[in-house]
Amino acid sequence: MSAATSKGKVRAGDAPLVKWTLIIVALAFMLVALVLPLASVFVEAFAKGWQVYLASIRDPDALSAIRLTLLASGIALTMNLLFGLAAAWAISRFSFRGKNLLISLIDLPLAVSPVVAGLIFVLLFGLHGWFGPWLDDHSVRILFAVPGIVLATIFVTFPFVARELIPFMQAQGTEEEEAALVLGASPWRMFFSITLPNIRWSLLYGVILCSARAMGEFGAVSVVSGHIRGETNTLPLHVEILYNEYNFAAAFAVASLLSLVAVVTLAVKKIIEDKTGIRGEKA
Amino acid sequence: MKTYGFRFALAAIALILLPLIGCKPGAVSQKSVTLLNVSYDPTRELYQDYNIAFARYWKAKTGQDVTINQSHGGSGKQARSVIDGLPADVVTLALAYDIDAISKSGQIPANWQSRLPNNSTPYTSTIVFLVRAGNPKHIKDWNDLVKPGVAVITPSPKTSGGARWNYLAAWGYALSQNHGDQGKARQFVAQLYKNVPVLDSGARGATTTFAQRGIGDVLIAWENEAYLAVKELGKDKLEIVIPSRSILAEPPVSVVDKVDEKRGTTEVAKAYLEYLYSDEGQEIAARNYYRPRSQAIAAKYASQFHELTLFTIQDVFGGWQNAQKTHFADGGVFDQIYGK
Question: Most exposed: A42, B45, B66, B336, by fewest CB within 10 Å?
Fold first, then answer.
C-alpha cells in the first residue's frame, strides 16, 4: 500500500538490479514454498482419475468426516460469534476491573499448543479426570465423542472473532450509538441499526478466519477424537488415516477439499480487505 | 449497495451451515448392535476383512446385525485412550503390556490373558527386514544391520509396540550369538541404534518413511507390515529378507469388561474374539500375513511363511513386565544406549 505513495521517488538503493533480484527471490520462494505444495495436492488427488476422486469423497467414512467437520465448525463458529460480540462489546464500551486480564485471556488459545489444548479436555473429562467419573455414572459422553471435538474446536478458535472486533470497536467509539439512544431507540434497535452495520465487515472477517481454522484443526481434535472411523473422524484426521493406509489418491482427494476451503477463504478475505481497507494482523 | 453485499454474505454463510440441520446420531434398534474395536496400526486391513466375515457369521447365528467400528493408532496411545474413557468393546493391541495397563485401571480383570486360548493371541507375527529391490547393501541377517554405512529404519520403542518387538528381537539374536552374554548383546543393540537416522513414533509411520519417502537401507518391521508394503508399493521396489532368528510376536486381544457390561455387549464382544480362532478367522489372518495358530490353516499357507528360529519374550526376557522395566522404562537400557 505504501508503495503507491512513494511511486516515482527513486531512492539510492532502488537500482533495477536490486529491485528485480528481490522480486525474483520473493516469487521463487513463494512458488516453492506455497504454490507447488498446493498444486501437488490437486495433482495427487487426480492421479488416479476422476472416478477415484469422486469415489473417495463419496465414501461413507469421508462423508461422515465432512458432516462432522461442518457440524463442529458450525457450532464453534456460532459460539465464538456470540462470545466475540459480547466480549468486544464489554471491552470497548465499558470499563471494569480485570478488563486487561480478559483481553489477555482471550489470546490464550493462540499461545497454547493445540496438543496441550486437547490434553486439557482429557484431564477434565477423561475417565480418570475431574468430571470423568460423574459423567460416566450418568452415561454422558464428552471425550472421544462429538461434544469433545466441538469443545476442542471452540477452544482453538476462541480468539478469532473477538480479536477482530475489539480494536475496531474501540477505534470507532460510542458517539453514534449514544445518539441513537438519545433519540429514543431501544437498545436492540440501536444494536441492529447502528452497531451491527458498522462492524459487519470486521465481524465477517473474524468469521472467515474462525471457520477456516475450525475446519483445519488437527492437533487438539486428534487428542480428543478417539479416531473411530465413520464416527469421530474429522476431515484432517480422515486425511491422515487414508495416507497411513497407502491410499494416497484418496488421501489427497479429501485433502483437496480442505485446500479448496483455504482458497475460498483467501478469496473472501481479499474481497473484504478491498471493501473495507482493514487488514488482518495475523495470518 | 454496501448493505446488500453484507446480506449476501450472510446468506452465503447460512447456506454453508444449512446441511448441519438433520445431522444427528443414528437411532439404535434392538435388532442391531455396534462394537468398537480399538486396535494398533498394522491391523487395519486384517480387521476390514474380518469384520465383514464376523457380521455375516453373527447375522446367520443370531439374526442380529452387527456393525464394527474401528479405531487405529500406536498401541500405547490406543491403550491410553481406552484408560481415559474411549468406549472400546474389545481391544486388539500390539503387546500384552498395553492391555495390562488397561487392566490396571480396573476395566479388565488381571487374569485376562488366560481367558482365551494361546495366551489370548489368536494370530502371531515376527520381525523381519524390508530392503530396497535387489538388496544393494547385501543384508541377510541381524549382524548386517550394525555394519557402518547401513541406515536402519525402526520406530521409537518408547511409543511404538512394534518397535519394542524389533528391539527385543535384535537383543535376542545378539544373546544367541554371544552365548547369553548380556553385555555383548547391549553393545550389539547400541551399535544397531547408531545406524538409525530417524525414529518414527509408530510402525506405519516408519514404513512410509522407508517405502514412500525413500529414507534408509533397511526397515525392521512386522512380517505382516512388510508383506503389505510389498503388496501395496510393488515387488519391483522392495524385497523381504527373513533373518536366521527372530522373536515370536504375540499381539493379544481382550474384551473390555466394564464397557461391555455397561453397553450390554458382553455376549457379542466375546463371540467376536472367539471367532478369530475359527477356521474362517484364522484363514483371514493368514491372508493378511499374520501367522495363524491353527495347524491346518498354517499348513495351507506354509509357502507364505518362511521357517526361522523363533524365541518368545517369556523365554528370553521373562515376560513383558520385566522387559518393559529393564529396557523401555525411563532411564532404562534403551535410554542409556540411545542417549549416548
Answer: B336
∠ CA B234-B235-B240 to the nearest 5 degrees?
A: 115
Q: Is A31 exposed, middle or buried (0-12, 13-18, 19+ CB in 10 A)?
A: exposed
CA dist list (Å): B141 to A131, B203, B243: 52, 20, 5
CB contact under 8 A, A231 and B69: yes
Q: Where would I find the beta strands (DSSP E) of B194-305?
A: 218-222, 238-241, 245-249, 253-255, 291-292
B271-318 per-position pLDDT tens digit: 999 999 999 999 999 999 999 999 999 999 999 998 899 999 999 999
User: Quick one: pLDDT at residue A14?
Assistant: 66
Question: CA A141 to CA B244: how far, in whole Å?
Answer: 50
How does pLDDT run across B111-128, given as a tens digit for each residue? 999 999 999 999 999 999
Contact A244 B204 (CB under 8 A): yes
ipTM of the shown complex: 0.75
CB contact under 8 A, A229 and B71: yes
Residue A59, C-alpha cell as written in the block: 465414501
Task: Identify the residue among B41, B67, B71 best suited for mutation to test binding to A, counting A beta carbons within 10 A and taking the highest.
Answer: B71
Q: Is A54 exposed, middle or buried (0-12, 13-18, 19+ CB in 10 A)?
A: exposed
Mutate to test the interface with B, among A61, A70, A127 (most CBs of B within 10 A): A127
